[in-house]
Amino acid sequence: MQDRDDSSLLRQYAEAGSEAAFTELVTRHLSLVYSVALRQVSQPHHAEEITQAVFIILARKARQLRHDRALSSWLFQTTRLTANNFIRSEARRQRREQEAYMQTALSEATPTPSAQIIPWLDAAVAALREADRQAIVLRFYEGRNLREVGLALGSSEEAAKKRINRALEKMQRYFEKRGIHSPAATLADTIATHSVQPAPLVLAPAVIAAAVTHGATASLSLTNLITGALKHMAWTQTKKYLIAGTATLLAAGGIWLLTHSTPARSPEPASDLTLLQGDWVGVEPAGPQGRSRMTITATNLDFRGADPREWYKATITLREDQQPKQMTVLITACPAPPFVGKKGLSIYKIEGNTLTIAGNAPGDPKWPGSFEDPHARKLIFTKK
Question: In sequence order, which ranges of the chain are alpha helices (DSSP H)?
Answer without folding.
Answer: 6-16, 19-41, 44-61, 71-91, 99-106, 113-117, 121-126, 130-136, 146-153, 157-176, 184-194, 203-212, 220-252, 254-259, 272-276
